[in-house]
Structure formats: structure tokens, C-alpha cells
Amino acid sequence: MKKFVILLFVCSSFLLQAQENSLTWPRVIKAGNYKITLYQPQYETLEENMLKGRMAISVKTKEDKLLFGAMWFDARLSTDLETRMASLESIDILKIKFPDIENDDNIEVLKEVLLEDLEKINIDISIDKLIASLETVSEEKEISENLDNSPPKIYFRQEPTVLVSIDGEPKFKTVDGKKIEYIVNTPFFIVKKKNTFYLKGDHFWYKTEDLYSNEWKTTKSVPSDIENLADKNVSSQQNPEIEEGDSNPPKLIITTKAAELVVTKGDLAYEPVKNTTLLLVGNTESDLLLEIESQTHYLLLNGRWYATKSLKEEKWKFVEPKSLPKTFLSIPADDQKVVGLRVSIPGTDEAKEALYEQQIPQTAEVNRKQATTEVTYDGKPKFDKVEGTNLSYAINTESTVLYINNVYYVVDNAVWFQSNSAQGPWIVSTKRPDEVEKIPPSSPVYNVKYVYIYESTPEVVYVGYTPGYYHSYMYGGVIVYGSGYYYRPWYGMYYYPRPVTYGFGVHYNPYTGWGFSVGVSYGWMSMSFHSRAYWGPCGYRHGYRHGYHNGYRRGYAAGYAHGKRNSNNVYRTQNGKNRPGISTRPAKTQGNRPTQAKNTRNNLYTDKAGNVHQRDKNGNWQQKRNNNSNNKTQTRPQTKPESKPQSKPQTRPQTNDYQKQQRQQLEKSHNNRSRGNTNYNQYRSQGRSRQSMGGGRRR
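The structure corresponding to this sequence follows.
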């Protein structure tokens, strides 16, 4: 089997035009006396980091004849989700076929020339085009039916209110040298002096003598030592795009359990959603709908739908995605207020692309000698058993440490390390333990199931992770955030929180990924007293000031300005540099680089039998034939592919059912390609910048 390497050509932000040209189809290369045109690949399946696909090719021979063919390939996918770029490495050319030409020695020579010359080329691809073009993806091995979808406590208020979450019963710690205690197990600034609690939120100060009272009073009389402590620990960072805070202080709800908050500005203001029997509640930053016929309200939280007949009674139940009323499928894709909901409705194009996105790995190459890690414990290492498995995990560290078959493993920034001691030293692992597949969602280390080891050499290990690593999971045809389980944190000399599902208004925006509707960077929340985060490996990604405006209220460009999907790369530091010993951008090899084909339309496709079809601007399909001397497109009935090679083309007419099925498949490929190109072009035209990240260490 012939192999060649296609490596990623990385373009920096100041070479956008060059990058765009390098990703434009079709592309041309020179191979001896032949001119080869490669048309946009049709990707068939993706399993882990292995991609299968086919592409239409045309070859102009030295006699000026034009031949059309198809090429099948397998490739290892190397990705950079931040730049939305990928490369195909270690490609195997499985087959090259020129339809209607059999037993031609010249064709066999041409195939050999193609194989030899294709070894020298470099090709970059767009991840957005890849996702849109995928025909199928492998079923991810998951236990999604065991996610906990029970509704949290959902509060409903019609006046400005903030939900203040404490991770279980409050744990107090004294500030060094001061007579002040702070609550360590909350991201909010809450301190206690004598018998009075003080809370800082935005530009307001609150106080009370009863922590759980909802009657916190605003005050301008704050002890100077508490003000000084807040000045040092509460971020004052402001985003120029964010409007100034409200002048009226909001009410507070203090909760120690999983909860969410829905706030409207006064009475509910309903807006009709065209083509549906739905009404959108327009004066809230929550995704809240009323289905008219059943008089049921539907609320979207973390990608999950919850329903109630009465908002004020606050009694909600989980709705299986496939049990949503059919009218949800009619939510228009051209309405910026509600289009963001379609990603959480099974069967929509948006939901499908989110599922594909869920299985695109972020990959890296780890140097076995250079990559290192360290683990710090609060005292001597302590381990708890993972139910239903033969492994244990460390509970008194912020790192993810596993004990499996007398070997210790740690997953740090999506790289597997191992040691014979819980204290290290640690070396890069070359094989992921099989027992990891048995970890249930109820375990706080469930997310390491989505960190992979693909291959290794004596020098490097090829690794990757999918969004499950930062707690994004597939369920019922959509993606959801968080397992729904409450993970008990560690309390000792230090406080180590575990990732949470509810309490912070998690939402999904196709342009920005998972975000949070509570402004950590705007004064309501602070990671000041401890550097640990509640949001797993990728840290905290804020939404807009008090919410994300239903994902689209500020429009398409605003979404892109805050970053494309949740794609911050854990293999890099927050300033964008690769972590020590890790490479996310493989070096180029020498060779021909395909150039953009000028004045050539990207309108050739192959079917699964290898026949080449062309779609004209009017939407008509014609099959390209090679057995005519002047090479004009033939319009005779197409031939149905057989499982065994035929010495002569089959000439009997196809059945109407087969022709219809073939045309539907080609039209689907065309629509997918068009959508992928549109997504890519919109992405390029809007530009992107990384969203600000706050909160703790990425694990």
C-alpha cells in the first residue's frame, strides 16, 4: 500500500488571504506530463482520529485528453480547533478508479504516476467544511443514558435577581492577619466579620446577619479592611462591548444546591415564532418558550429541555429531546432570536453539525522526553474506588490521578502520564488503560474517557481529546453540558471543587461554544481566594454581561467576536503557546503544494461506486464518461454499480428507484458542501478572537 504524508500548512492571522487560497477547491498539481485537478473531498466516516473519504479527480494527459476518475483514501486527522484548520497525515491511497476504462495498460501506468507524485503534496483542509461534508461518523462509545437529567431547582423571578451559589454548606477560612472569614467554597466574594456577612456584586455591596436570608440589604458602609480585600481579589476588568450595569441593585438568592434562575423584566412578554405554535418570552435572557396548544413552558438549560405548566409553581420535568413537540422542528433558521435553539432540537442541521463537532478531536504530538507533569496532594494521597470498575481515583488533589492495576496515571492537559508511585516521577504514557472505558458518568473522573492515545514512536506519542473532556456530551440526538451529577469536593487545608452542571446559566452558541451567563470578570464572581475552577479543563468562558441574549440577540458578528466555538486548546497556554514538549502544528515536509485551480468550478462529485458526476448551475446532474474520444459528457442512462468488476460497462437502464436514490445522495453531498463553504466563508469574513478566560488551572 502506497503512503504519503499531507501535513498542515499553518497560516497566522496576518496571512488570512494566503490561507483562504490554500483552502479553496479545486486544486491543481503537476505530475510528470500530467496536470491533475483535485476536487473537494467527500468525507465518508470519522472514527477517533481516522478519516475515510473519496474525491473526484481529473487528469489532463500529454495528448491533451481529459480523464475523470475517483480516489479513495484513509488518513490520520491532525487538527487545530482554534484556527479551524486540519491536515491529513499518513494517508493510504486505497484505490484510484477511472470509470468505463478497463484493462488499459496506459491507465495502470497513470495510476502509478499519480501514487508516486501524490506522495509529495501538501494539502490543508477546513474543519468547518469537513464537518458539513461528513456522511457518517462512528457511534461514540458512551453511557449517555446514565446521565442525570433531573431538573435542578429552578427559580422564577420578575425583578432583577442574582443567584449566588455555594458549593454545599459554607466552609469558612480566616484571612491571614485579619479578623475576617471568607467562604471558600463559592466563586462569589462573601466574607464575614463579627456577626455580619458582606457580599460584593458589580458596584454594589450587600450585608446581612443571616446568610440564607433573601433580605440582603445594600450598604455603603463597609469596613475598610473588607473593601481593601475586595480591591485585591475581585476583578475589575470590563469589556468595552458590555453596557454599564443597572443602577438598581438586584435581589439575591443564596443556594447551596444545584439551582438555576429565570428572570423576566416584569410580566412575561410573548413574541410569536413564525411557522410554529410557539411563543418566545422576549424579556428574559433565558431560552424560554410557550407552546400554545398545550399551554406548556419549555426552558433550555445546558442543552436540556425542561417543561412546566406553571412558572410560579417552579415544578419542572425533564423532556427527552425526541419527545419535544413537532412544532420545534419548524423554528426558522433565519430568525436570529430563536435560531440558536435549533442546535438543541434533534434532526435539525444545527444539531447534526454539533454532533459531528462533538467527535472532531483536538490532536497533538507529545515529545516523550520533554513533556512532564507534577501532582500536589493535600496531605498524603487518598483514593476512592470508582463504582463498577477496578480503578480508584485520588480525592485530595486538583489533578486527575487514577490507580489501575498497580500503576498510577494522571491526565494533565489532555495528556496521559504514568508512574509506579502516586507522587511520581511521571512519564508520558503510550497506552491508555482499557479500564477507563468503564468509568460511569456518576464519577468525577468520567471526562478522561474522552482523552485518547492514538499512536506512538520511540520519540513521540500522538494524542487527542474530544469535547467530552470538558464535559460536553451527546444525548438523544443533541449535545448537553455536564453529566448532571453532583461531585463532592475535597475539603482539607485546601478546597478542591469539582466541575458543576448547574448554577451558572450554561448555554451553547454555534459561534462560541459553551458559555456561562454569569459575569465572573465583571465583579459578581471572583476566583480570588483559590485558583481552582468549577468548569473543568477549559476553564470559564463568559457570556454577555448578565446573559448571552439567547445566543443571537447581538447578532452573528458579536458571536464571532467572542470566539468560534469552545475551542480553546488545552495543549496550549492561555497566551497561545504550546505547552512544554507538546506540538500542535506539525512541521511541513518538502514537496509540491497544490495551487488553486483558476476558472474551474468546484462542481464534480463521486458516488460510492466511483462514478463522477457534474452539477451545472441549474441544478442538473450529468455523469462524466471516459469512453468517448472527444470526452463530451454523455447523457445516456447511468449504469448501476455491481459488486464484481465488469469487462464492459453495463448498459441496461437503471431503475427509477435507483436513479432517484443516487440523485438524492448527490444532491445531499452538494448541499453539505455548499453549507460547509458558507460556514467557512462567513467565519473568514467575520474574523475571530479568543474569548477571555477566567478561573483556574486546566487539568
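The chain has a mean pLDDT of 77.
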